[in-house]
Amino acid sequence: MDDCIFCRIVSGQIPSSKVYETDQVLAFDDIHPMAPVHVIVIPKTHIPTLMDLTAERMNDCDALMRAVQEVAKIKKIDQKGFRTVINCKEEGGQVVLHLHLHVLGGERLRDELN
Ligand code: 5GP
Ligand code: ZN
User: Fold this and answer.
1) How many domains does the chain have?
2) Segments forming the whole domain that contains residue 58
């Protein structure tokens, strides 16, 4: 997907600050952090939204959750805690149409929807 920002990050066409990587997933620092720690975790495969995560692709879901745990340990927010957010489609506030999880932490997060 040449027109997808996150596919371009996966292919190295757009640089990113890599936090964690496996064959299936990539995690990198958000370019506009909303908290002291703000990491984006994506499947390397182009899956547009959470609603496109079909049964055959559920192993990507496993890989994403494992990656969140690893990112939390790498960023040292695993003990105190953090928040994960998935924005889905327009009304959910999804801007980049490549499935991604936000991992936010490093301070007491406000009790509002992200
Ligand atoms: P969404 O609103 O789609 O859930 O979140 C997209 C996120 O991707 C935003 O937090 C935005 O700052 C981040 N983002 C957009 N473009 C880039 C980029 O080129 N590099 C990085 N590292 N993050 C990006
Ligand atoms: Zn993509």
Assistant:
1) 1
2) 5-105
Give the model confidence (pLDDT) of 43-66 as tens digits: 999 999 999 999 999 999 999 999
The CATH number given to whatever domain includes residue 59 is 3.30.428.10
Q: Answer whether residue 110 is part of any domain.
A: no
Q: How far is the CA of 79 from the centre of ligand 2 (A)?
A: 32
Q: What is the pLDDT of residue 113?
A: 54
Closest C-alpha to ligand 1, atom 4: 94
Q: In the annotation, is 98 catalytic?
A: no
Q: What are phi and psi of 59, to 5 degrees?
A: -65, -25
Measured from the alpha carbon of residue 50, the closest ligand is 1
Q: Confirm whether 114 is domain-assigned.
A: no
The residues, any chain, with a CB within 8 Å of residue 10's CB and separated by 6 or more, are 26, 42, 44
- Which listed ligand is nearest to 14 at the C-alpha? 1
